[in-house]
């Protein structure tokens, strides 16, 4: 007897009667991939840690809901913030090159891992140069400015 000759009794196996994912072998890889991505994003959010360059400490992220929640939980440790978006609908950007300067001297330079960066450092106003796909945006960032928005 071959496998395709078998008759399924759906009364004995209700999962087959309702077309469960287990009964559809083509969907299994997609389900496994979805679970893996969810787990990976949660792990990334849990590992979201501030970095320090000289006297500047920063935390960038906010890709996905888990990271956004982790960022909100740590926001109180920072006194400045940047948000990077693109286009008229405000699509979040990651991979923005950021340079912070004070009195025309560079104090930190980093690549933003997500659309939002929280920053803390000595009390001063910083000049921000942010570059995405070769296009620069400039602004200033002072203590208490937590939502300075740069758009491309």
What does the model show?
The protein is an alpha+beta fold. It has two domains: about 1-45, no CATH class; about 50-150, Immunoglobulins (Immunoglobulin-like). Helix content is about 20%, strand content about 35%. The protein has helices spanning about 15, 30-45, 65-75; strands at about 50-55, 55-60, 80-85, 90, 95-100, 105-110, 115-120, 125-130, 135-140, 150. Strands 1, 2, 3, 4, 7 and 10 form a six-stranded mixed beta sheet that branches. A hairpin with a 2-residue loop joins strand 5 (about 95-100) and strand 6. Helix 2 packs parallel to helix 3. The radius of gyration is 24 Å and the shape is globular. It starts with 13 loop residues before the first helix and ends with a strand. Residues about 35-45 have low confidence and may be disordered.
Name a few traits of the molecule.
6-stranded mixed β-sheet, 2 domains, alpha+beta, 3 helices, 4-stranded antiparallel β-sheet, 10 strands, Immunoglobulin-like, 152 residues, 37% strand
Per-chain topology:
Blueprint: H1 14-17, H2 28-46, E1 51-53, E2 56-61, H3 65-74, E3 80-86, E4 91-92, E5 96-102, E6 105-112, E7 116-120, E8 126-132, E9 135-141, E10 148-151
Parallel strand pairs: 3-10
Antiparallel strand pairs: 1-2, 2-7, 3-4, 3-7, 5-6, 5-8, 8-9
Helix pairs in contact: 2-3
Question: Briefly, what is this?
Answer:
With 152 residues, the protein is an alpha+beta fold. The protein has helices at 14-17, 28-46, 65-74, and strands at residues 51-53, 56-61, 80-86, 91-92, 96-102, 105-112, 116-120, 126-132, 135-141, 148-151. The chain folds into 2 domains: 1-47, no CATH class; 50-151, Immunoglobulins (Immunoglobulin-like).
């Amino acid at each position: 007897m071959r496998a395709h000759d078998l008759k399924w009794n759906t009364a004995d196996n209700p999962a087959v009667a309702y077309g469960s994912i287990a009964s559809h072998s083509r969907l299994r890889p997609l389900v496994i991939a979805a679970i893996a991505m969810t787990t990976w994003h949660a792990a990334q959010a849990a590992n979201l840690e501030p970095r320090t360059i000289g006297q500047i400490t920063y935390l960038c992220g906010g890709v996905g809901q888990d990271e956004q929640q982790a960022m909100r939980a740590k926001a109180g440790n920072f006194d400045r913030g940047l948000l990077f978006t693109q286009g008229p609908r405000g699509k979040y950007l990651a991979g923005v090159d950021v340079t912070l300067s004070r009195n025309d001297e560079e104090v930190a330079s980093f690549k933003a891992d997500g659309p939002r960066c929280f920053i803390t450092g000595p009390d001063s106003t910083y000049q921000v140069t942010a570059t995405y796909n070769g296009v620069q945006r400039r602004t200033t960032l002072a203590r208490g400015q937590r939502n300075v928005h740069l758009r491309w």
